Amino acid sequence: MVKLKKTATIEASPEEVFNYLNKPENWRELYPKISQLWDVKALPNGGYRYNWMFNMAGITTVDVVTENTDVVRNHRLDYRNTCGLKGKRQYTEVNESFTLEPADGATRLSYAADYVVHIPIVGRVLELIFSRMYDIKINVVIANLKKKMKSLR
């Protein structure tokens, strides 16, 4: 299992950040590698379950099923993502958490993720490769979130 943590200050209230992050359709803007997003279903916890697809390193397409496992309005969004190559079984599980705290008129965003690749023998090697990819992904997401929140002010 690989763990990743990031923090950032977002120039918007926790409510604004939460409302934007909690809409699955906004993720296409936050993470432009998303090529499709479909089957969005609201959950009783205030979150969503949905499918999306992205192109990995220009080599192959990855299918992802995302579900909000815990939602605390204006404070936290937890996600469980299961990923697999297009049309294949799900081989990777990624658990992500975004925690939002007020910070002098802005939001302190804390991101944490842990993920595991369920492929015998090569799984650990792939986890190390994917760790760099997820690091790049979350940096892109945070940068785009900062830009979006700034544009709404």
Structure write-up:
The protein is an alpha+beta fold and about 150 residues long. The chain has one domain (about 1-150): Alpha-D-Glucose-1,6-Bisphosphate, Chain A, domain 4 (2-Layer Sandwich), CATH 3.30.530. It is about 25% helix and about 50% strand. A 7-stranded antiparallel sheet has the order 1-7-6-5-4-3-2. β6 and β7 (about 105-115) form a beta hairpin. The chain is globular. The chain starts with a strand and ends with a helix.
Write the layout of secondary structure elements.
Blueprint: E1 2-10, H1 14-21, H2 27-30, E2 34-42, E3 48-56, E4 60-72, E5 76-85, E6 92-103, E7 106-117, H3 123-151
Antiparallel strand pairs: 1-7, 2-3, 3-4, 4-5, 5-6, 6-7
What would you say about this model in short?
The protein has about 150 residues and is an alpha+beta fold.
